Amino acid sequence: MYLNKVLLIGNVGKDPDVRYFDNGAATANFPLATTERGYTLSNGTVVPERTEWHNIVARRDTAAFVEKWVKKGAGLYVEGKIRTRTYDDPSGIKRYVTEVYADKVEFFSMGNRNVETQSEQTASSAPSNPQPATTPLPQPSPQSATPSLPSEANEADDLPF
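The structure corresponding to this sequence follows.
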């Protein structure tokens, strides 16, 4: 059994480049940046943040969605498969390009990171039509987030703090 599947969550590096063909088909190409946080090991060694750039290719209906809604800086979830192609550059050297052919592209919120910056960008670049909604992630209810103890247990608490 073989599997070629890629799941990426990142930010769009530049506005998509959309191309149309004579038969009406379209492709959208854009770079997506994924970043691994930096950290410090227990011995004090600092491992820096690392950003990888991925070439994303969207086709058919996905290309139409990307053309209409995706802009530089948008947080995206991309599902697809890896493909590598080759070409000869003008000097005759063989070059290799690795791309992710997207089967699914959805908006993804990066949480509360840089909230002011994100809201300013969204307000200035928001289209006049509302963006399509993606399925929201389930949020814990306030009751389940804080376990409640019976009142007798709180009164009989004999912990020293």
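The domain at 1-38+46-117 is CATH 2.40.50.140 (OB fold (Dihydrolipoamide Acetyltransferase, E2P)).
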